[in-house]
Design a protein that fits this description.
alpha+beta; Alpha-Beta Plaits; 3-stranded antiparallel beta sheet; 2 helices
Length: 80
């Protein structure tokens, strides 16, 4: 699915701290057929850290996929 050419609106699914958690959630969603756009202002380096919101990663999904993605995210977080 090409998110830029779809007429549906992108909606924020969640915001997480760091790439590792983001990649886990992206992988789970994609395995269920939900494409995820990752938005991050994090500077990548050998010592990743978070300061005043830096390092936050926003995960965006299509509006049509939002409810299903939220359910998947809730199930993932319950297992932690």
């Amino acid at each position: 699915m090409n998110m830029e050419n779809n007429n549906s609106e992108l909606i924020e699914l969640t915001t997480v701290q760091g790439d590792i958690e983001a990649e886990i959630i992206v992988g789970i969603c994609r395995s269920e057929g939900i494409e995820v756009l990752v938005k991050s202002d994090m500077a990548h380096g050998s010592l990743p850290f978070t300061v005043d919101g830096m390092g936050q990663v926003k995960l965006m999904v299509m509006k049509d996929d939002l409810q299903r993605a939220r359910t998947i995210l809730e199930e993932y977080r319950e297992k932690e």
